[in-house]
Amino acid sequence: MQPIRFDLHKFSVKQLQGKYCITPFILISINNAGQVYLCGCTWWMSQPVGNILTSTLDEILSSKIAKNIRQSIIDGSYVYCNEKVCGVMQNGGLNDIETLPPNVSRLISDSNLYDLPYHIQLNLDQTCNLSCPSCRTRVIKVPAEQKNQQKQLGQTLLKNLLSTPTNQKIIIEISAGGELFSSEMLMELLSGIDTDQFPNLEIHIGTNATLVTRRWDRIKNVEKFIKKITVSVDAGSALVYEQVRRGGTWTDLCDGMEFLKNKKQELNFELNGRLIFQKENYKDSEKFYDLCQQWNCDLAEYSRIYNWNTWTVEQFLQQDVYDPAHLEHSQAIEIIQKLKKLPNTWFNGL
User: Fold this and answer.
1) Partner of 189 for a Cys bridge, out of 25, 154, 160, 250, CB 3.0 to 4.6 A?
2) Mean pLDDT of 25-29
């Protein structure tokens, strides 16, 4: 098995006529260079449609490539989407014409039509206090000489994206790529939102939870707008955790999860745990499910591992137990089948 290529912007033509992904019509994702995508995962759709630092959002959404992406959804070809890794396709999440929300239904007659997105995903900072082997080879911090530039990026985004008051729902998602509670820029950005101008704001957070007890107060002014927190756990025991979450401690994780469990009761947000399924932790995945129940999680999420260029091909093949050629594949499949019978689970690529 060769590693999946994520640097190709177009993929094979699909035959998905009458099946609609709503994401390119409601969401934008922005990376740390200001590039804008019409999908929440650049592994699923690797083609950017513009740059928020050099163009207005209207210019970006009316660009030729944005129209082409919307057209690929409308005609069912999905040539900008990698069906091998897309969690929406893998989990039967495409809509029929009857199940499309009204705001999207009116847009699928013409790829020139668009609305300003109400779901904004921010992947602005790779800074993290951990260096998990599946994600990176080292701890990433912002160099001192880039801190001012990064601060300006956050201020520009606040001005460009959150400058017009509205009563409509707006979702701000601080997503994968780094750790919110390690990022000065991301915490400043959240604390800089004028929430009086956005009464129907929702905030979704991805975190490793190891710093929340110490740094939650930095975002306390927006905590009542937090509606979803997803925690990357990747283990069900201390020994496995400290292998796959390099630099983290089991004590910090458990303290963080207990803190979030109590915050959930106070603030009523959705709390999910996530495990990236790999050789080092798949035998721990049932214990992980039990912990999710203990922490009052709404979902236990399981995702297949992919090579994000942190491993050689040989190293990755050793980790990908979902590959039929792997010596432990049958054991892994047996565990997955048991997990799929449990309530409140979600699977991406498995």
Assistant:
1) 154
2) 92
Q: What is the mean pLDDT of residues 225-237?
A: 97
Vertex 12: Cα angle to 27 and 329 (nearest 5) = 90
How many CB atoms lie under 10 A from the CB of residue 278? 22
- The answer for residues whose C-beta is within 8 angstroms of residue 100's C-beta and 6 or more apart is 20, 22, 108
CB within 8 A of 174, min separation 6: which ones? 122, 180, 186, 190, 203, 204, 205, 206
Nearby residues of 276 by Cβ (< 8 Å), 6 or more positions away: 134, 232, 234, 244, 303, 304, 305
- 114 neighbors 61 (Cβ within 8 angstroms): yes
> Long-range contacts: 62-65, Cβ < 8 Å, 24+?
62/112, 62/114
pTM of the model as a whole: 0.84
pLDDT score of 4 more than 60: no
Gap between the Cα atoms of 76 and 58, Å rounded:
25
Euclidean distance between CA atoms 72 and 92, whole angstroms: 18
When comparing pLDDT for 178 and 248, which is higher?
Answer: 248
| Average of per-residue pLDDT across 284-298 | 97
pLDDT, residue 134, reads: 87
Give the CA distances from residue 209 to residues 25, 27, 254, in Å, rounded to whole numbers and listed in that order: 31, 26, 9
Place of tokens 């998602």: 173
Residue matched to tokens 């999207």: 104
- pLDDT beyond 60 at 163: yes
Residue 82, sorted as left (phi over 0), alpha (psi -120 to 50) or beta, turns out to be beta
Between strands 119-123 and 345-348, the pairing is unpaired
* Structure tokens given for 331: 């054991």
What distance in Å separates the CA atoms of residue 131 and residue 52, rounded to the nearest whole number? 29
Cα(341)–Cα(303) distance, integer angstroms: 16
Name beta bridge partners: 303.
Answer: 276, 348
Structure tokens at 264: 């959930």
